[in-house]
Amino acid sequence: MDVASQIDPTADFGRATSYPGAVHTSVGGVGHNIARAARLLGADTALVAALGQDAYGASIADELTAVGVDTRFLQYPGAGARTAVYNALHGPDGDLIAAVADMGINQLASTSHIEGAFQELNPAVVGLDANLPSLALASALLQARACRACTVFEPTSVPKCTSVLAALSAIERSSAAPAIADLVHVATPNGLELRRLAAAAIELGLVAGAPAAAAVDEMAERHYSLDAGILRDAMTVFPVFQVLVVKLGKDGAVVLSPSPRNRHQPLVRHIPPLAVGPVVNSNGAGDSLVGAVLAMLHRRPALLTQEGHLDLSPGDIDSIVRRAQRAAILALGSASAISDQLHPRLLDKD
Fold this sequence. Notes:
CATH class of the domain at 108-347: Alpha Beta
Strand content: 15-25%
CATH superfamily of the domain at 108-347: Ribokinase
Helix content: 25-40%
Order of helices and strands: EEHEHEEEHEHEHEHHHEEEHH
Number of helices: 10
Largest sheet: 6 strands, mixed
CATH topology of the domain at 108-347: UDP-N-acetylmuramoyl-L-alanine:D-glutamate ligase
Shape: globular
Number of strands: 12
CATH architecture of the domain at 108-347: 3-Layer(aba) Sandwich
Structural class: alpha/beta
Strand order of the largest sheet: 7-8-9-10-11-12
């Protein structure tokens, strides 16, 4: 559940005190937001998540059902488990000041429950977020591979984003493990999450290290508008994720995907931002973009090659990201994390 507070623009902001403003409660959470956005944008969607047996849990299940999300695989761990709550405080300009995330219930996610959902749904596209513990993420990635499903990982936050790397590390150490580079097809970090992912990938030995400074400098010269640190970190983790979509907020996005000539070499592009109107809150913009990516992937009949690689050209990927920005912009102008104005037509044209 999302509880979003915004300080009134007329307030004398800056002191440690209470402020006049508006408080808005809505169904939220990264998994919910992504599932809701994907469904509103036309994808057949099911949510696999843990809820408490409380008023928030009942409200979430009802709202998901109302928009047509399949709720058969919602899990209720039992008494004492509270539905996850994200409590955010936004400044007068809509920017996030601070937030408290009560997400302990996600640690109770059952791998057997996840496996059962995969076996019944046999999905073509799977969205995963870092609220899941690494063991559950590992199970989901292996189940997705067995289904030949395209996987999209949303890192969620700086403290949580490395859970996917822990999952990949555990898979790599197991017997008869698949190549970890074949398991996460798209990752969607922001700049801060990307920095943490790059450091953790080196720490865990999943990558050899950061690219040579000369290689980063050469790339920065080609893309003079991009921060060299972003390029370095993106090039560092590129061997782990097949496609990287780095969300840069008002600066658009950076996309890395395999070069058509050599899939081990990254092809880097900058996707410029679209025009943004008045910002009400920034809480669901990233989730809306990811939901739109999932919805557009869902439209394609065959996503993976026989080897398990994402079968999209650089132009296809860039088109997906450009269209997905429209969903993010609608979220910025909405009091709710996911705008009710989302519609499949939003994604129809580049």
